[in-house]
Structure formats: structure tokens, C-alpha cells
User: Which sequence fits this backbone?
């Protein structure tokens, strides 16, 4: 019996009105550090301008969109790049761990503690009625904040290097999520959110 075998299965995190599950380390063919370095170096990162309340802003992070279909959010239309062999390998690991299929991935590069993502739900119609989103993180651990839309109840999760967070069920209807800025100096982090665009 392997008492200390590292877990390869997602553990549910009980929350009201949605489904969340976490796996501390996704099983991958390379080290987390190697993957982070390759993602930073090989991705065609873009600084996107978004329109929020009628005002143009540069997003406080870099992004890239890979997959079969264009994606529209915050008045931004992202034309997809094809899946690279590295992204295909990460997707295979995510599909194996989660039992779900994904045809697109949004990459977010948080260069330091000043990079962030505002509170939002991933509830665009093309994601289907109950979006299943698999979020994989490499590099600097950042705090993922979830806030229930009605009760304002807040849940904070540490998204550590190599981890997988699965969001499913009614989560996107009932909760917002985001990544706050940090006053402390923080290192680089790349997050990948795998999605299924119907
Ligand atoms: O960086 C993260 O952990 C969050 C990413 C996210 O919410 C998104 O890509 O929609
Ligand atoms: Fe999101």
C-alpha cells in the first residue's frame, strides 16, 4: 500500500451553487519550471486593449488565445492561434485528470504582482449553459478569489505551481472570480484556462 502516493485525482471543494475541484499537481511529461519557461518564451503574448464602461484600458496582464474558434469578451474579439504540441500535451493531462474535453485555451501571463484579473464570470453563451473550465497554473502562486453574486460570500484559493482547478456546474452563474494585485513583489505566473466552445 502506498501511504504517501501523490494524488492524481481531483478533490471536490464544497461550495454553494456550483462545482469546484482541485488537484495540487497535474501529471505532466516535464517539470513545472520547464513548462513555465517554455510558455513564457514560446507564446505570442499580446497586450490587449479592452473597453470597460466605455473607456479603453490596456489589460494588466498579457494574453494569448489558442483553439478552433474566435472568442469574444469585454468587447474584444480574439482570433485563435492553433494548439502547439506543448499546449496539446497540457490539454491531454487536463482531459485525463478531469474526464472533460476542451477545444480552446486562454493563456494569461501575470508578469509580477501588479498584473491581475478583475472579478468576472466566464458565462459567454458559446461556453454552453454550465461551462466547464479547467484552470492550470505555473510559477508564482497567486490567490484566486471567488465571490458569490447574491450572498457576497468569499472563498480564497491558493493556485500553486502545477495545480489544476476545475470550475463546473452552476458556478459561473452564481459566482465571480478574479486575481487581485499584490503589494508584495511577486514572480511570473502563467495560467491556462481550457474551455469548450460549442
Ligand atoms: O489566472 C487565473 O487563475 C484566472 C484566469 C481566469 O479567470 C480566466 O482566464 O478567465
Ligand atoms: Fe475566468
Assistant:
Amino acid at each position: 500500500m502506498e501511504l504517501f502516493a501523490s494524488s492524481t485525482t481531483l478533490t471536490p471543494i464544497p461550495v454553494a451553487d456550483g462545482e469546484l475541484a482541485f488537484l495540487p499537481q497535474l501529471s505532466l511529461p516535464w517539470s513545472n519550471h520547464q513548462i513555465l519557461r517554455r510558455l513564457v518564451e514560446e507564446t505570442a503574448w499580446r497586450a490587449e486593449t479592452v473597453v470597460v464602461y466605455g473607456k479603453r484600458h490596456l489589460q494588466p496582464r498579457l494574453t494569448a488565445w489558442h483553439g478552433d474558434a474566435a472568442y469574444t469578451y469585454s468587447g474584444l474579439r480574439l482570433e485563435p492561434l492553433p494548439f502547439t504540441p506543448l499546449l496539446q500535451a497540457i490539454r491531454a493531462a487536463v482531459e485525463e485528470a478531469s474526464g472533460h474535453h476542451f477545444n480552446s485555451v486562454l493563456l494569461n501571463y501575470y508578469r509580477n504582482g501588479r498584473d491581475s484579473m478583475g472579478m468576472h464570470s466566464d458565462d459567454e453563451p458559446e461556453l454552453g449553459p454550465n461551462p466547464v473550465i479547467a484552470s492550470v497554473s505555473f510559477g508564482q502562486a497567486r490567490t484566486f478569489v471567488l465571490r458569490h453574486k447574491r450572498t457576497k460570500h468569499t472563498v480564497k484559493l491558493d493556485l500553486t505551481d502545477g495545480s489544476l482547478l476545475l470550475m463546473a456546474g452552476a458556478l459561473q452563474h452564481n459566482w465571480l472570480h478574479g486575481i487581485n494585485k499584490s503589494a508584495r513583489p511577486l514572480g511570473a505566473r502563467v495560467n491556462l484556462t481550457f474551455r469548450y466552445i460549442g
User: Anything to note?
Assistant: The longest helix spans residues 85-98. Residues 120, 122, 177, 193 surround fe (ii) ion (ligand 2) (CB under 6 Å). The mean pLDDT is 94.
